[in-house]
Amino acid sequence: MSPIFNFLFEQYSSSSPSDIALEITAVIFGFASVWFSKQNNILVFPTGLISTSIFVYLLFKWQLLGDHDD
Asked: What's this model's pTM, rounded to 2 decimal places?
C-alpha cells in the first residue's frame, strides 16, 4: 500500500466494522447538522444530537475521556 493510505487508515486496522460504520454515520450526521444550520432548518437539532451521541458513545468505548491523572 502507499504510505499516504497507510498513514490515513492504519488506525482502523484494529477497529471492528461496526465501530467504523458508527463513526462514518456520526460524521455524515455532523455534516448534515452544519448544512441544516446554514439553511436555518430545524433539523439542525436532531442531526446534531445524533452525531454527538454516537461520538460520545465511541469515545467512552475507546476510553478517550479527556485528561486525567490516573
From this structure: 0.84
Spell out the domain ranges in the chain. 17-70
In this prediction, residue 70 carries a pLDDT of 59
Q: Is 29 left (phi over 0), alpha (psi -120 to 50) or beta?
A: alpha
Q: Would you tell me how many other CB atoms lie within 10 Å of the CB of residue 26?
A: 19
Mean pLDDT in residue range 46-66: 93
Alpha-carbon Rg for the chain, nearest whole angstrom, is 15
- Cell 458508527: give the residue: 22
Picking from 18, 14, 44, 42, the residue whose alpha carbon sits closest to that of residue 31 is 44
Helix (H, G, I), strand (E, B) or coil at 63: coil
Averaged pLDDT for residues 4-22 = 91
Contact present, 54 and 25 (Cβ < 8 Å)? yes
Whether residue 28 contacts residue 60, with contact meaning beta carbons closer than 8 Å, is answered with no
